[in-house]
Specification:
Strand order of the largest sheet: 3-4-5-10-11-12-13-14
CATH superfamily: Aldolase class I
Number of domains: 1
Cofactor: FMN
Largest sheet: 8 strands, parallel, barrel
GO cellular component, one term: cytosol
Organism: Pseudomonas orientalis
Helix content: 25-40%
CATH architecture: Alpha-Beta Barrel
InterPro entries: Aldolase_TIM, OxRdtase_FMN_N, Oye-like
Number of helices: 12
Number of strands: 14
Keywords: Oxidoreductase
C-alpha cells in the first residue's frame, strides 16, 4: 500500500490515512459562530486522516480578521459540537487550531477599540488584516500599532488558551493545535527583532520561547499532552516577519524543547517559498533529528512530493491545503489517480453562502 494511504497511530488516535487537511482561514461566519455550511464543509472532507480546523481565536483580543469563528463562547462551542459530530459520523478525526494573532489586528476588532497586543510595540507595516475600514464598511487595513502585554497579561493569555482547549474537549474535538506559526503571537515572542521585553519572556532564547512552552504545558495539564499539537513555521517571512539574530539556534531550541514533551505532533510549515524564504538547505532533516515525535509536513505538497517525503522518513503525515478546498474527496482522487479540480481563488475568503465553499462536487458526481 502507498504509505500516504496507510493507517497511522497518532498518540493512540487511529487515523485512516496519513493525509491531513491543513488549517485554512475562510472568513465564512458573519456572527463568528460555525453554522450549517461550516458543518457541511468539514463533513465533506472527513476522509482525511486528520482535519485541522481553520484558526479559532481564543478570545476577542485574539481576533485579527472579520468573520472567523472562535472558540470562547457557549454559542461557538455548541456550533463546533455540530461540526465534530458530523465529522465523526463520517469516520473522520478533527483537531481545533487555537489562535491568537497578536499584533496582526486592528483597533476596530479589539474590545473597546484597544490596541492589539504583542511581545513589544513594533508595528506590522507591510501586510494587511481584514477589519472595519469605517463603521459598516469592511476591507483590508493596516494592522494597528500594538502595545506590549504586561507580565500578568501573559499569564492571562495562557489561561485563554486553556479555557479554549477545555471548550474544544466539550465540543467533541479529538485534540487541539496551538497556532505558533505564520507571524502570529508566539512567533512575535520568539523573534528578537519584535520581542524587546526585559521580563522573563524576553531577552534570551529560553525566555522568548517561554510563552509557547508554558502554554503547551498548561494545555497538556488540562486535556492531556497526547491531545496537543503545535504548528510552527521556522524562518517564516510571511506577514511582515523578518530574519533575526540567532534564528536557526532559536528554532532548534524550540524543536528540542517540544521533543521533551509527549505531544500528539509538531506541524512543520517550512516548504513553500512564500512562508519560508530563508529556510536553510536540509533544515527539515535537522529539525527531525531534534524532534523525534510525529512530524506533520505542510507547504505546497503534491501527491508525488508527499510520497517522496514519506519514503525519506523525515515526515510522518502530510498536510494539504488549497487542494482540499476544491476537492472534498481529495483522498479518493489521489488514491485512484483521478484528476484534481482547480479552486477559484476569488472565493477563498469572505464570500457568504455555499459558492466556493460547499458546492465543489466529488469526482463521481462530476462525471455523472
Amino acid at each position: 500500500m502507498n504509505k500516504l494511504f496507510a493507517p497511522y497511530d497518532l498518540a493512540g488516535l487511529a487515523l485512516a490515512n496519513r493525509v491531513v487537511m491543513a488549517p485554512m482561514t475562510r472568513t465564512r461566519t458573519p456572527e463568528n459562530i460555525p453554522g450549517d455550511l461550516t458543518v457541511l464543509y468539514y463533513a465533506q472532507r472527513a476522509s482525511a486522516g486528520l482535519i485541522i480546523t481553520e484558526g479559532l481565536p481564543v478570545s476577542e483580543e485574539a481576533r485579527g480578521y472579520l468573520y472567523t469563528p472562535g472558540l470562547y463562547t457557549d454559542e461557538q462551542t455548541a456550533g463546533w459540537r455540530k461540526v465534530t459530530d458530523a465529522v465523526h459520523a463520517e469516520g473522520g478525526k478533527i483537531f481545533a487550531q487555537l489562535w491568537h494573532v497578536g499584533r496582526l489586528s486592528h483597533v476596530s476588532l479589539q474590545p473597546g477599540n484597544a490596541a492589539p497586543v504583542s511581545s513589544g510595540t513594533v508595528p506590522a507595516t507591510t501586510t494587511m488584516v481584514y477589519a472595519w475600514v469605517e463603521p459598516g464598511k469592511e476591507g483590508p487595513v493596516l494592522p494597528s500599532a500594538p502595545r506590549a502585554l504586561t507580565t500578568d497579561e501573559v499569564q492571562r493569555v495562557i489561561q485563554d488558551f486553556v479555557a479554549s482547549a477545555r471548550r474544544a474537549m466539550d465540543a467533541g474535538f479529538d485534540g487541539v493545535e496551538v497556532m505558533a506559526a505564520n507571524a502570529f503571537l508566539f512567533d512575535q515572542f520568539l523573534s528578537s527583532k519584535l520581542n524587546t521585553r526585559t521580563d522573563q519572556y524576553g531577552g534570551s532564547i529560553a525566555n522568548r520561547q517561554r510563552l509557547l512552552l508554558e502554554t503547551v504545558d498548561a494545555l497538556a495539564a488540562e486535556i492531556g499532552a497526547e491531545k496537543v499539537g503545535v504548528r510552527v513555521s521556522p524562518f517564516g517571512r510571511i506577514y511582515d516577519m523578518e530574519a533575526f539574530d540567532g534564528e536557526a539556534e532559536a528554532w532548534m531550541s524550540v524543536a528540542s524543547a517540544l521533543n521533551e514533551r509527549d505531544l500528539a505532533y509538531v506541524h512543520l510549515n517550512y516548504q513553500t517559498t512564500i512562508s519560508a524564504a530563508g529556510t536553510p538547505e536540509g533544515f527539515g532533516a535537522v529539525f527531525r533529528e531534534a524532534y523525534r515525535g510525529t512530524l506533520v509536513g505542510a507547504g505546497g505538497f503534491t501527491q508525488d512530493l508527499a510520497d517522496q517525503e514519506l519514503k525519506k522518513g523525515e515526515l510522518d503525515l502530510i498536510a494539504f491545503g488549497t487542494a482540499f478546498i476544491s476537492n472534498p474527496d481529495l483522498v479518493a482522487r489521489m488514491k485512484n489517480g483521478w484528476p484534481l479540480a482547480k479552486p477559484d481563488p476569488s472565493t477563498f475568503y469572505g464570500v457568504i453562502g455555499a459558492k466556493g465553499y460547499t458546492d465543489y462536487p466529488e469526482y463521481t458526481q462530476n462525471q455523472a
